[in-house]
Design goal:
Length: 583
C-alpha cells in the first residue's frame, strides 16, 4: 500500500471517529433538575429555597418578575446550588410568573411562582394599642411604624393633644398629653391611625376620673385680712413651740393612746409656761368614709375647737396630717402616687374649708415624716406637697395667703439637704416653710433597748459623761453634730428667706435609772434640750418640743395632762432657757 492510500485511509478513520463522538454527545445531553417546581407565597410574602442540580458547566435563570420577586443568584457554575427566592412586598391582586432555568444543552426547566392577594400593601402599627393616663394630667409616647410613604393620626377628643398628626416611612414617636380630668368619671378617646393601602389602627386612650368627689364646694375670693405676714415675718413671731402629741393623732380616738381629752386649761398652761406656738398632730383617715374620703363633720369641728383654744391664747398653731395609719408617709412611691394625691386633695379641701376663717396664727402642714430615701421617691413626695398647696389655695378666703409647711424627706436633715433641691410651686410668694425633725443621736433621744447596731446612750456631751457607766456615754451626735446639722438647714433655706420648722425634738427621760446615774442622766438630758433649742433659734430654726403626754420611763411629757400641772420642771426650764439665751 502506497503512502497516498495510507493517508486517505487515516483521514477516513478520523472523520468516522469524529462523527461517532458527535453522535454520542447528542445522545447524552446535560442534566438539570430543580426542586420544587412550583412556589406559592402567602399574602405577606416570605422566602424559600430552590435546589438546583446540573452537570453543565454553567447555568442561568430568567426572572420576568424582578419587580416583586428577588432571586439571590441568576447565574452560576455550581453543580449543586441553593437559590433563594424572596418576596418582600404585597399585592392587591394575586400574581404569578414563571422562572426559566437553563444549563448547557439540558432541557430548560420552568418554576411557577405565585403570591396570594392581600387586603393591604403596607404595614402600619402602633407600639401601644391602649393607654391609661393619670387623672391629674399625664403624658405618654407611642411609636408609629410603617413602610407606607405617609400616615395620618386623628382623635375624636379635644382634651387629648398630639405632638404629631402625620409622618412618613419608618418609625416615628408621637407624644400624647392630657390635662387634669376634673370630672368624677373616666373619659376615653380613640386615636385613628391610617395610611393608603394599609390597615387602620385604633388606639384607645383612657384617663381616670376623680377617685373622690371635690370638696371645694364653696370657694371664696382671696381675703388678706389678718394674713399680711410672710413666712419669714411669721417665723420671727414664733418663739418656742410645743407638740400636743399622742392626742388628736391617736388611732382609735383622741384618748386611745392614754392621754385625756384636750382641754382649754391644758392649752392655757402651755401658754403660761413660756410657749407661744403649738403643733397639733392630727389623724383624719380613721374619721373618713373609705369610698368618698368625706371626713366626719363632728371630727372636723372637734379639731377646730382645739385650734380655737390655741388662737384664743394668741398662740400660733401648726395643724397637720400626721402618721394617720401611714397612707401617705409609707407610700411615697410611683405606684401609689395617684391614689395618695387624690386623698391628699380631698382631705385638705375639707380641712382648709373648715379652718378657713382663722387668721395667720394658723399654719397648715402637709404631712408628718414621709419616708423617702432617693430622688424618685422625693419627686413623688413633692407631688403630694404640690397637691396640698393647690388644695388649700383653691378654697380661697384667708387660705389664699396662709403660710404652709412642707416636710423634708423623712424630715431628716441630711436627706433634706441632699434630696430637697427644689420646692413646690405656690401662687403666692414667700408663704412656705420647710419642716425637719431632730432626734440625733437616736441612741440617746429615742432608743429604749440595745440593738446589734448600737447601745442606748444615757449621757450626752463631754461635760456630762459618766466616769463609772462609760459604755452609756454618747460616742457620736453631740454638740458638733447639732452645729453642723443646723448649719446645713440655715444655708440651704433660712439664709434664702425660707424658714425652717424643727417640728419635733426631744430625748426620752430614763426615769428607771436611780441615784447618781439618774441625776447625771437628767442633767445631761436638760443640757441637750437647752443646747438644741438655743442652737436652733440662733440658726433661724423654729423649735417645737415633742411631748407625748406620758410620764412613764422612756417618755417625754412636760405636763401632766390629767391635772394640768407641770410634771417635768427641769425639762421645761431647759427649753425656755435655751430659747431665751438665743434672743
Amino acid at each position: 500500500m502506497n503512502l497516498i492510500t495510507k493517508t486517505r485511509l487515516t483521514g477516513i478513520l478520523l472523520l468516522s471517529l469524529l462523527t461517532l463522538l458527535a453522535c454520542q454527545k447528542k445522545d447524552n445531553p446535560n442534566t438539570l433538575s430543580i426542586n420544587p417546581s412550583q412556589v406559592t407565597f402567602p399574602k405577606d410574602g416570605g422566602s424559600t429555597l430552590l435546589a438546583l442540580q446540573t452537570d453543565a458547566d454553567s447555568w442561568n435563570i430568567s426572572n420576568p418578575a424582578s419587580d416583586w420577586l428577588v432571586v439571590s443568584n441568576t447565574s452560576g457554575t455550581e453543580k449543586n446550588a441553593q437559590i433563594s427566592l424572596k418576596v418582600e412586598t404585597k399585592t392587591l391582586t394575586a400574581r404569578t410568573d414563571t422562572l426559566t432555568i437553563m444549563a448547557g444543552d439540558a432541557t430548560p426547566v420552568q418554576v411557577m411562582v405565585s403570591q396570594a392577594s392581600s387586603d393591604y400593601l403596607y404595614h402600619l402599627s402602633s407600639s401601644e394599642n391602649t393607654l391609661s393616663l393619670k387623672r391629674s394630667g399625664d403624658s405618654a409616647t407611642l411609636t408609629v411604624t410603617t413602610d407606607a410613604q405617609e400616615w395620618t393620626m386623628s382623635t375624636d377628643a379635644a382634651w387629648l393633644q398630639l405632638s404629631k398628626t402625620a409622618g412618613g416611612q419608618g418609625s416615628t414617636s408621637v407624644d400624647l398629653t392630657v390635662p387634669e380630668n376634673t370630672g368624677t368619671d373616666a373619659r376615653t378617646a380613640t386615636l385613628t391611625l391610617t395610611a393608603e393601602h394599609a390597615p387602620t389602627v385604633e388606639i384607645t386612650v383612657t384617663q381616670k376620673g376623680e377617685i373622690y368627689p371635690s370638696y371645694n364646694t364653696s370657694p371664696q375670693a382671696p381675703d388678706e385680712t389678718g394674713m399680711t405676714s410672710t413666712a419669714a415675718e411669721l417665723a420671727a413671731k414664733i418663739n418656742l413651740g410645743w407638740n400636743l402629741g399622742n392626742s388628736l393623732e391617736a388611732i382609735g380616738g383622741e384618748t386611745a393612746w392614754g392621754n385625756p381629752k384636750t382641754t382649754k386649761a391644758l392649752i392655757d398652761l402651755v401658754k403660761q409656761s413660756g410657749f407661744n406656738a403649738i403643733r397639733i398632730p392630727c389623724s383624719w383617715n380613721q374619721y373618713a368614709n373609705a369610698a368618698t374620703a368625706k371626713i366626719q363633720a363632728d371630727w372636723l369641728q372637734r379639731v377646730k375647737e382645739v385650734v380655737q383654744y390655741c388662737i384664743d391664747d394668741d398662740m400660733y398653731v401648726i395643724l397637720n396630717i400626721h402618721w394617720d395609719g401611714g397612707w401617705l408617709e409609707n407610700n411615697c412611691t410611683q405606684d401609689k402616687e395617684e391614689e395618695v394625691n387624690a386623698k391628699q386633695k380631698a382631705f385638705w379641701e375639707q380641712i382648709a374649708t373648715t379652718m378657713r376663717d382663722f387668721d395667720e396664727h394658723l399654719l397648715f402642714a402637709s404631712a408628718n415624716e414621709p419616708n423617702v430615701d432617693n430622688a424618685t421617691q422625693m419627686a413623688v413626695l413633692e407631688s403630694y406637697h404640690q397637691t396640698f398647696i393647690n388644695a388649700v389655695r383653691s378654697t380661697g378666703g384667708k387660705n389664699s395667703y396662709r403660710v404652709l409647711v412642707i416636710q423634708g424627706p423623712s424630715t431628716d436633715i441630711e436627706k433634706t439637704n441632699q434630696l430637697m433641691t427644689s420646692l413646690p410651686t405656690d401662687e403666692v410668694a414667700d408663704r412656705l416653710m420647710v419642716e425637719i425633725h431632730y432626734y440625733t443621736p437616736w441612741n440617746f433621744c429615742g432608743m429604749t433597748e440595745d440593738a446589734d447596731w448600737g447601745k442606748m446612750f444615757y449621757y450626752w456631751d463631754n461635760g456630762y459623761h459618766s466616769t463609772t457607766d462609760t459604755d452609756r456615754n454618747a460616742t457620736w451626735g453631740e454638740e458638733d453634730a447639732v452645729d453642723s446639722n443646723f448649719q446645713l438647714m440655715k444655708q440651704q433655706f433660712v439664709d434664702k428667706g425660707i424658714p425652717v420648722v424643727m417640728g419635733e425634738f426631744s430625748a426620752v427621760r430614763r426615769s428607771d435609772l436611780t441615784g447618781d446615774a439618774l441625776t447625771l442622766h437628767l442633767a445631761s438630758r436638760a443640757y441637750f434640750l437647752k443646747y438644741v433649742t438655743q442652737k436652733a433659734k440662733e440658726d433661724g430654726i423654729l423649735p417645737f418640743y415633742w411631748d407625748n403626754g406620758s410620764m412613764d420611763n422612756n417618755n417625754c411629757a412636760i405636763f401632766n395632762r390629767n391635772d394640768d400641772t407641770v410634771f417635768d420642771q427641769q425639762t421645761l426650764d431647759a427649753i425656755v432657757e435655751g430659747a431665751n439665751a438665743a434672743q
